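Example (one chain per record):
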Amino acid sequence: MIVLDTTILVYALGSDHPLQAPCRRLIEAVTEGRVEASTTTEVVQEFVHVRARRHGREDASRQGRDYAALLAPLLPIGESSLLLGLRLFEEHPELGAFDAVLAATAIANVVDALVSADRAFGHVRGLPYVDPSTSGMARLLL
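Predicted structure:
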């Protein structure tokens, strides 16, 4: 199973961008059942927040519900993931607190990859990270 970061959800539905096509292909693969993926409630919430700025609350909420259903069951963030995330936040100045907790959740769930356009994830030892602009993304879609 892979974990999707907010960037993947945003680019898949966004306007013209170099990462739009690979992110859309990944979401299509999940929709078709070729790739098993999940995320957290926090990622869906962040997506809705970002989407609402350009497309309004109704559209953002609808798309957020669609993503929540597609990526269910969503991964819980328990106390141990939070504590690991806080440690990662301290150790990796390039990671924000939100991303550090997402990385910890992915590590705790022993996922095949965390997919994100945010390259800061690549600095976290023990986290299998895939940038959607790299050949690693193509391997996920095989």
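Caption: The mean pLDDT is 97.
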